[in-house]
Amino acid sequence: MTAVKLLSGAQKVRRRIIFFSLVLLLITLATWVMADILWRGGMNSCEIAILILFAILFTPVSLGIVQALTGFIILWRRRDPARLLSLIEKASSLPELPVTAVVLPIFNEDVSRVYEGLRAIYRSVERTGNISRFDFFILSDSNDPNKWIEEEMAWAELCKQVKGFGRIFYRKRKTALNRKSGNISDFCRRWGSKYRYMVILDADSVMSGDCLVKLAQLMELNPQSGIIQAAPVQALSESFFGRGMQFAGSLYGPVFQAGLNFWQADEGNYWGHNAIIRLAPFIEHCALPDLPASKTPRAKFMSHDYVEAALMRRAGYEVWLAYGLGGSYEGGPPTLLDMAKRDRRWCRGNFQHSWLVLSPHVRPINRLHLALGIMSYLSSPLWLFFMIIGTLQFWIASRLTVRTFDYDVGLSSLLDIGGNQLAIILFSTTISLLFLPKLLSLLLILRTGQAARPFGGRLRATLSVLIEHLFSMLITPILMLFHSRFVLGVMAGQEVGWGTQRRGGDDGVEWGEAVEAHGGHTFIGLLWGLLAWHINPAFFWWMSPIFIGLVVSIPLSLLLSKVSAGTAMRQMQLFMTPQESNPPVELAELKVSLEVCDQHVPPLELLRKNYGFMQVVLDPYVNAIHIALLRRHNKRRLDSAYFAQLQNRVVTEGPDVLSRREQMALLMNPECMAWLHEQIWLLPSEKLALWWRTALRQYNILESKPQTALYL
Asked: What global pTM score does this model have?
C-alpha cells in the first residue's frame, strides 16, 4: 500500500509561511509599541534590556495566539485537508489489522489504578471484536517489594477474570536501566520483531478499543507514518486543581491541537504515551544517543519522546497528531505541588535537548519543537528578570526631575496619546490576547446549545472559563518562581530523580507542606509589593496581579488541592467536561471498579512494611506464581554464598533486617524463594524470628476467613 499525501510539499510551505508571518507580524507590532514607550528621551541600559526581553518573551505568546486563532478557524469551518482521520473517512475499505502490542511501563504505581485501567481497555477492545489483534504487556521497573508482589498477583487475577492468559503478559525487569526509555528498549529487544506496531500507554492512561483500532487502521492506511499521537484528555480528576486542569484541557485543547496540526502537519511530535509507533523503523533508527557531558556513563535523555520523534523524522517517516480522535484519556496531577514536582523532571529533560537544537542532523521543525520545549521553562526566569529590571527602571524613572514618559513621540505622537496611555493600551491588549484562545474555545461551544450542554450549558461554561482564568492568573506567578528555581538548578548541575507520581486525589496538601513549598513565594510577594508601593502607588497597582498570587500562595495551594472543593464545583455543575457529563463506557467502568475494588485486610503494624514479602514466602499460590514468572524471564545462575547468607538472616532475624536492595535480590532468585517458602513452614517456631511467628499467626487468621482475600 502506498502512502497517501494529505498535503503536498508546496501546501505545507504555504501554510507555514502564512502562520509564521502572522506570528512575526504580532511580535513586530508589540515590540514596536514597547520600543515607542521606552525610547522617549533616549534609552538607557535597563530599557534596552527590557525591550530585548520583551521581544523574546512575546514570541511564544504570539505563537500560541496565532495557533489558537488558526485552530478556531479550522474548527469553525469544520474542514481541514490535513486531518489524519480523513484517511479512514475516505477509505473504500478498511484494512485487516496486524497484531499490535499495547505496552504499559510502570514504576511503583497504584496497582489497583493500573490494572483496573487495563481491564477497562481490554474489555473495550473485546467489544470491538478485535481482541485477537492486540497483546498487552505490563513492563515493571518497580523497586518496592510490596508493589512487585502486588503487581504479580493483580496480573494473575486479571488474566483469570478476563481470560487473558496468552494475551496479557507481565515482566519485571531485573535492572531498571535508563528509566522508561530503557524499559521500552528492553521490550523492543525481546518482543519487537513479533509486532508491526506498538501502542505506548502511561500508568494512568485509558484508551477505548475504537481508538486503538483506528490508530492501527491509520498506520495501515498510511505506511509512511512512523508515529501517530492520539491527544489524551485528562479525566477522572477529583480535586479543585485537577478538575480545573481537566476542564481547561477539554475545552481549550481542541483549538490548540487543530492549530498545531495546521503548521506541523506530518512533522509532528511524540508526547511519550497514548501513541502508536511503527516498530521496525523505531528499533532501527530511534535508539537514544548517549547524553553528552553527563556524570553518569552512557546516560540517556530523560525526556525521550521529543528525541525519538526527531529521530523518526530524520529516518524519513512521518509523525502525525491525530487530533479529533476520541477515546484517549489520561490522569493528571491532583495538586499544584504535584504539578511542580512533575515540571521539575520535565524541565531537566527538556534542557537536555539543548544538545540537539543545533545538531545538523535534526530537521528544522523538530529543532523548533525542541526549542519550544526548552523555552516553556526558560521563559519563567526571563519573565522574572524582565520584571526585576522593570522595577529597577521604574525606580530610576521616579527619581528623575524630567518626566520623559509623558513626551509625545513616535507612535504616541501619531495617535495623539501620551506614553502613559500607550502603556495602558499595550498592557490591556496583551492581557486580552492571553485570554483570546479561551474566548475562541468558548465561542465554539456557545455556537449551539448542544455543544455547550456537556460543559454544563452556556451560562455555566462561561462562568467556568472566568473562574479558571482567575485561578490561572493567580498560579502563574507561583509557577514562574517554581520554574525559575528549576532552571537555575539545572544550570547548576543538580540531579533530578524520576520517582513515582501521585496521580489521584486524596486529602490534599497539608499545611506544613504548603508552608514549606510556598513560604518563600509569600515572602517575595510581600517584599516586592512593599517595594513597589514605596516606589510609586501607581506602580504597585500595575504589578498587583503578580503580588496577589504570591502572597496568597499558601491558602491558594491548600484550596486547590481539596477534593471537597472539587466536589462542590461538580455539584454546582462547574468545570464540567464531556467525559463527566456523558462518560464513555471505559471511564464509567473504571470509576465503578475502583470504587468496589477489593481491599487488603490491614495487616498488623509489625508486618505492614514487608507485607508483600510475607505473601510471597507464606502463601503457596503467590509463591508459585512469583517463581514461575522468575524462571520465565531470569535464567542466570546467581552467587550461592551471598544468597545463603541472606536466606539465613531472613529466617532467623526477619525481613526487617534486610535493605530494600537485599530484599529485591532475594525476590529475584527463584531458588531462594522456593527454599524460604519451604523452610518457614517446616522449621519449628523457636528457630524462626519473632516476625515470622507473628506473620504465621496473621496468615492463619486470614485464611480462616473465606470472605477475605490475602491478595488482590
From this structure: 0.91
Residue bearing cell 535480590: 665
Cβ-count burial of 620 within 10 angstroms (0-12 exposed, 13-18 middle, 19+ buried)?
Answer: exposed
What span, in angstroms and rounded, lies between the C-alpha atoms of 70 and 262?
7
| CATH 3.90.550.10 placement within the chain | 97-289+304-331
Q: Taking a C-beta distance cutoff of 8 angstroms, is the pair 621, 152 a contact?
A: no
Q: Please provide the DSSP assignment of 586-644 as one string.
A: HHHHHHHHHHH---PPPPPHHHHTTHHHHHHHH-HHHHHHHHHHHHHH------HHHHH
Mean pLDDT confidence for 589-593:
89
Q: pLDDT tens digit string along 324-371?
A: 999 999 999 999 999 999 999 899 999 999 889 988 889 999 999 999
In Å, how far are 608, 611, 652, 698 from 694, measured between CA atoms? 12, 12, 13, 6
Counted residue by residue, the chain has a size of 712
Cβ atoms of 710 and 616 closer than 8 Å = no
**Contact by Cβ (8 Å): 6, 259:** no
Tell me if 98 sits within 8 A of 197, measured CB to CB: yes
The model's pLDDT over 226-273, given as tens digits with 9 standing for 90+, comes to 999 999 999 999 999 999 999 999 999 999 999 999 999 999 999 999
**CA-to-CA distance for 236 and 651, rounded, in angstroms?**
44
Q: How far is CA 311 from CA 82, 343, 356, 364, in A?
A: 22, 24, 11, 12
- Taking the C-alpha atoms of residue 22 and residue 31, their distance in angstroms, rounded to an integer, is 14
Taking 3-state DSSP, the helix, strand and coil percentages for the chain, each rounded to the nearest 5, stand at 65, 5, 30
As a whole number of angstroms, the distance between CA 535 and CA 547 comes to: 15
Q: Are 410 and 39 in contact (CB under 8 A)?
A: yes
Look up cell 503467590; give the residue.
622
Interval 512-571: pLDDT, tens? 999 999 999 999 999 999 999 988 888 888 888 889 999 999 999 999 999 999 999 999
CB atoms within 10 A of CB 391: 17
CB-CB contact of 196 with 279 (8 Å): yes
- Cβ atoms of residues 499 and 330 within 8 Å: no
CA gap 588, 63 in Å, rounded: 37
Non-local CB neighbours of 675 within 8 Å, separated by 6+ positions = 647
Residue 459 has a CB neighbour count (10 Å cut-off) of 10
What distance in Å separates the CA atoms of residue 242 and residue 332, rounded to the nearest whole number? Answer: 7
Q: Does domain 97-289+304-331 have CATH number 3.40.50.1820?
A: no
